[in-house]
């Protein structure tokens, strides 16, 4: 009867086990690499979507990333946004946290101030929208705000809507710095007395409405 080579058999078995272990490790590495590449692809898709929507004059809501082809899970949204912001090639992309969502935009197409206004419109924060727009113009330029501005993008108020929101603003103490002035042609302007005195605001409104055309 032929003697079985036990030691040789053990070596063969060990070699097979080692091969299986190596294959298993390689499969795990491949799966990890695929997962990393998939995540990288999703981050790139997120950046592309933000830039595309910004080029169309639109904000990207974080909830947009739930949809195909990005299809993130709820728990992936914030970490993925942080990863996007951390990448040097997406340095033009910024976020604004609203009351109910997070919004993204590219400053290649939309300024930060304009994006803030768009967020307030999106979240129907209309009283604050008017007040902060007026304060920004009074502080930055400085100049009073022509109320006709609020009939254009991104505001798109009707006359009735604007009148209603302005009436509500006047009843709230936190907006008592927002004042009115009228030019001699009755055009209405708003200003913040935190940043402009009444005489200056009135004279600028008059110059814009009347004197500018008379003295080009």
UniProtKB/TrEMBL annotation:
<dbReference type="InterPro" id="IPR058229">
    <property type="entry name" value="YdhW-like"/>
</dbReference>
<protein>
    <submittedName>
        <fullName>YdhW family putative oxidoreductase system protein</fullName>
    </submittedName>
</protein>
């Amino acid at each position: 009867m032929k003697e079985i080579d036990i030691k040789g058999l053990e070596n063969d078995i060990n070699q097979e086990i080692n091969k299986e272990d190596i294959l298993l490790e390689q499969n795990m590495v491949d799966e990890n690499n695929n997962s990393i590449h998939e995540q990288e692809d999703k981050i790139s898709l997120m950046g592309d979507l933000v830039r595309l929507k910004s080029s169309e004059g639109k904000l990207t809501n974080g909830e947009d990333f739930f949809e195909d082809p990005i299809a993130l899970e709820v728990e992936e949204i914030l970490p993925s946004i942080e990863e996007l912001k951390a990448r040097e090639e997406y340095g033009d992309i910024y976020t604004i946290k609203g009351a109910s969502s997070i919004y993204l935009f590219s400053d290649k197409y939309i300024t930060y101030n304009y994006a803030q206004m768009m967020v307030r419109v999106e979240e129907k924060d209309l009283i604050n929208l008017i007040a902060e727009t007026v304060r920004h113009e009074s502080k930055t330029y400085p100049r009073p705000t022509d109320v006709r501005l609020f009939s254009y993008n991104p505001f798109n108020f009707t006359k009735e809507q604007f009148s209603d929101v302005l009436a509500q603003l006047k009843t709230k103490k936190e907006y008592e710095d927002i004042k009115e002035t009228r030019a001699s042609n009755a055009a209405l302007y708003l200003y913040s007395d935190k940043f402009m005195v009444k005489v200056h605001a009135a004279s600028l409104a008059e110059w814009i409405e009347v004197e500018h055309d008379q003295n080009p």
